[in-house]
Amino acid sequence: MASMATLFVKTPSPSPSFPKTFNTHFSPALKLSIPLASKPRTRQRLRISNALIEPDGGKLVELFVEESKKGEKKREAASLPRIKLSRIDLQWVHVISEGWSSPLRGFMRESEFLQTLHFNSLRLEDGSVVNMSVPIVLAIDDAQKRLIGESTRVALVDSDNNLIAILKDIEIYKHHKEERIARTWGTTAPGLPYVDQAITNAGNWLIGGDLEVIEPIKYHDGLDRFRLSPAELREEFTRRNADAVFAFQLRNPVHNGHALLMTDTRRRLLEMGYKNPILLLHPLGGYTKADDVPLSWRMKQHEKVLEDGVLDPETTVVSIFPSPMHYAGPTEVQWHAKARINAGANFYIVGRDPAGMGHPIEKRDLYDADHGKKVLSMAPGLERLNILPFKVAAYDKSQGKMAFFDPSRSHDFLFISGTKMRTLARNKENPPEGFMCPNGWKVLVDYYDSLVPADNGKVPEAVPV
Amino acid sequence: MASMATLFVKTPSPSPSFPKTFNTHFSPALKLSIPLASKPRTRQRLRISNALIEPDGGKLVELFVEESKKGEKKREAASLPRIKLSRIDLQWVHVISEGWSSPLRGFMRESEFLQTLHFNSLRLEDGSVVNMSVPIVLAIDDAQKRLIGESTRVALVDSDNNLIAILKDIEIYKHHKEERIARTWGTTAPGLPYVDQAITNAGNWLIGGDLEVIEPIKYHDGLDRFRLSPAELREEFTRRNADAVFAFQLRNPVHNGHALLMTDTRRRLLEMGYKNPILLLHPLGGYTKADDVPLSWRMKQHEKVLEDGVLDPETTVVSIFPSPMHYAGPTEVQWHAKARINAGANFYIVGRDPAGMGHPIEKRDLYDADHGKKVLSMAPGLERLNILPFKVAAYDKSQGKMAFFDPSRSHDFLFISGTKMRTLARNKENPPEGFMCPNGWKVLVDYYDSLVPADNGKVPEAVPV
Known about the structure:
Shape of chain A: globular
Structural class of chain A: alpha/beta
Distance between the termini of chain A: 21 Å
Largest interface: A-B, 35 and 35 residues
Number of strands of chain A: 15
CATH superfamily of the domain at 224-321 and 391-450 in chain A: HUPs
Mean pLDDT of chain A: 88
Oligomer: homodimer
CATH architecture of the domain at 224-321 and 391-450 in chain A: 3-Layer(aba) Sandwich
Helix content of chain A: 25-40%
Radius of gyration of chain A: 23 Å
Largest sheet of chain A: 5 strands, mixed
CATH class of the domain at 224-321 and 391-450 in chain A: Alpha Beta
């Protein structure tokens, strides 16, 4: 993956003009207090960083323990009650600790949980409102609650008992699962992937508090170097002199319809007067359902798309968004957009039925295909974000390539669904020429080829992540 | 009900100092444009009206057709497609037309419906936010949708085909019932009363639009004169020189614990420096579930409470709130509070588990008893309203009366639940002396006595409304 690495791998040492504390130059206090005229070097830094949208709450949250205090924190943690984190819990610690959920400083306490469920937003102490649509919570069971007793802090450890973080000033409250599910997904039907994975068998209590994270979260899967934090992304956009950042969330292979859309978006931004719009191509890297293409294969596919020149490496940053996937449609798309504000994006591309899926027990889509876009455009706390609705691209048989759908000659167009794409790749068939770059397609075929067929000789639709 | 009528029946002719257009003196435009010093009479009116909280959106909505245009509107309606309203639909027309849901001007269009479901609030054109937590929508079925065709307006008629209103600039959109229920109630369990009554068998489409209501809604049940509109209540509060209005929503008989709370609230408001706090005792008058005590009996009971001097008629306005009941707990309590802002209340008393009920299929309460109060205190658009949490009152055996619960001598207190109260009244037993005024209690006993026993000789718990 060498070629991709040059595009978005973390810079080993920061460029000399930017301090290691990435978020310093986004602090509003700094903007107000420094006399710009007398400090030209400071002014230049401010000018550039001002081009990026401010993080929610005004300051990007980062929750890592300072190097000098690590020993002390580790000793402290040794004496605290221990809570073992699931893989998804760990992904949320990752998300919170790097500030994707700024201004959240830890797992939600009840007041944040309730505001999220009822209002999809949080009111801050100064009266301002930030968006927050999915509950970011940590469940514990009765035994763990008893173990914690009167302690005001707990140690969070991974499955191998390695210390991950301390959760302090904790608050324990009831985990009303049915209500959480109903208000987040708009259904309580059995078979919602995230619910089955992370809620149904979780404990009946939630524990909120502030996080002190010992080390940045790593997965040791060969992809950690592609997991840029919001601060690192902001630094990268600043380094590239971006005056607009447009984010594209995805959890599927990139086909030429996506590429057309992204290229066209850049063209439109240039027309609007921006000089250097940068694309954040931002595949979701946390939990996904079993029949989605796994992250490692998607990253290989994205690499090929860049190698083949379908997207311009000069104006594209590919990075991994560490959040788990809820498949909660209009509720979740707000989270996807809000997190990208914190990473510096001021434009967000939204398509048909974002974060949607089929209804788990009825023969229909779970969400109205237009609701995601509509809800996103009206969501509290996202007023600063420019929403770019997705134009529909389809395969234009008359041109032999992906093009924006023209209803006046609809017979020329072929819609290739995700299911159709997967079926073709699974059967090693080729899609129409121009649907996806050939090397990208080969990755997909290789992926399905790598799956062990089930006893009946069929390649299973569901693949464990 | 003569004695009660003197307290809150509509004034036949408005007092000379207040014009018939009640809401004129709440208009912010008026406040800004009239030079106060030169018009003492105007100034006096403004001073008084300023004591009342401003309606949501700045101006109280009233949607009645002017007298001079009624003929024209009726002729127009005759040529329009007709939609027949259910009893609950009619209650919502009542609610919307008098401005309880200001600034709503009709049944919700999709953008309002989605904002209500996801954010419990609406963003207005000027960027400000008002609370709106329950969907106020009108369902139609496929046949009605076909009948409407391309028409941009429809006539709304009651069950006897009397013209009620014209709905104009209509928008028809999908009625996603499961999602509506899940996001409003936080459950989709079968047996939610409002869902069974008004959603399950309703049509698969919703029709939004602006209302032009031909005549104020009347029920001809002997209680219409007690149904004061928000404008009429505001006039009444102004007439009484109220400098604070505290609302108490209820759908149950008033016992001495309620009375203690209301009296104590007035005492606290006086201590805070208010000179004349007025209580709005505001029983809900729309749809209620079968085992609630019907409105007519509750009104008789409230009358006795005032006659017996448990509450002070001088500082109490009893009126009927025309909304149907959702039993949607923390979601609905916001609606109950928001509607009272529009009626002029700036203080709202909230108790344990407001608008709650038992879970329809599990042996527990549907909502956490504290969530209503918490959600209400954080709700967007209700920042202007002062939330007064309900102190717990119980029967103090040592004093032989209702008193605020004192945990330090909990053994002295007896909690009498609604179920216990109903069981006693049904069996013609008396509660402990001091629980409820004797004449009020007699109304309850009479009510249960009036019910026809079921075949098994037992008085049914469920009574059709």
